Amino acid sequence: MSENALVVIPARLASTRLPNKPLAELCGAPMIVQVWRRAVEAGIGPVLVAADGPEIASAIRAAGGEAVVTDPDLPSGSDRIFAALQSHDPERRHGVVVNLQGDLPTIDPASVRASLAPLADPAVDIATLAARISRPEERTDSNVVKAVGAPLSPTRLRALYFTRATAPWGEGDLFHHIGLYAYRRAALERFVALPPSALEKREKLEQLRALEAGMRIDVEIVETVPLGVDTPHDLERARDILERNSRK
Q1: Residue 35, domain extent
Q2: Of 38, 105, 211, 216, which has the most beta carbons under 10 Å away?
Q3: Is residue 238 part of a domain?
Q4: Count of domains in the chain?
Q5: CB atoms < 10 A from the CB of 169, how many?
């Protein structure tokens, strides 16, 4: 699957809790550059940043990367990566598109690679990631999205639902969903053409649109959850993590 994969990182400057978040300094580089570096280190294909303006695009180009400026009024990251894909690859060379969020500077490149594994099954439309929840407080935290699925192997689920509630009920593992998606190109095209669904609007989880439309999502289980940077405190935590990683 990696032979025709394109990693696209959507990034926009607007952020209520951390203004100009993609350009925040993080261990000597803007955060979006750190995310771009993790994607390059994954080694699964070219990496493209889908920016909402020239500031982010300039930062990526200064680091040696590629960027496309997309309409700042696009409603979601999925719409932004689709617009970037159409602009960057009208010849349709890339049949797989990996959507890596621009606020995950600590993601393990191995996790990015792992997202492609479920697409080896031609029945899978979209692949994503999750990790077992180990901290008890996360089981009831509505900010921690849970992936609920039927086990296919020790490292894979077929997704049945995603929820902010504690689910499934009963004894056993719960899985913390990680918002990284690997789409077949046709699946991404279908997804962005669909209207927001009822459960998507209720749970505020975009991936439910695909499930409600009958698309198959498989979940690869990885070891760690990357830190999503949303606040100044998160930014400090990310600095600590990257500094520790650089000393290893």
Answers
A1: 1-102
A2: 105
A3: no
A4: 2
A5: 7
Identity (one letter) of the amino acid at 151? P
Q: What's CA 22's distance to the chain center, in Å?
A: 15
Is pTM beyond 0.85 here?
A: yes
Q: How far is the C-alpha of 210 from the C-alpha of 229, rounded, in Å?
A: 26
Do 160 and 204 share a structural domain?
yes
Q: Report pLDDT digits (tens) over 194-226.
A: 999 999 999 999 999 999 999 999 999 999 999
Which amino acid is it at 76? S
**CA–CA separation, 101 and 9 (whole Å):** 6
Evaluate whether residue 240 is within a structural domain: no
Asked whether the beta carbons of 118 and 202 are under 8 A apart, the reply is no
Q: Specify if 239 maps to a domain.
A: no
CA distance 104 to 13: 15
Q: Of 102, 129, 159, at which residue does a domain stop?
A: 102
Question: With contact defined as beta carbons under 8 Å apart, do 220 and 156 qualify?
Answer: yes
Task: Determine what percent of the chain falls in helix, strand and coil, rounding each to the nearest 5.
Answer: 35, 25, 40
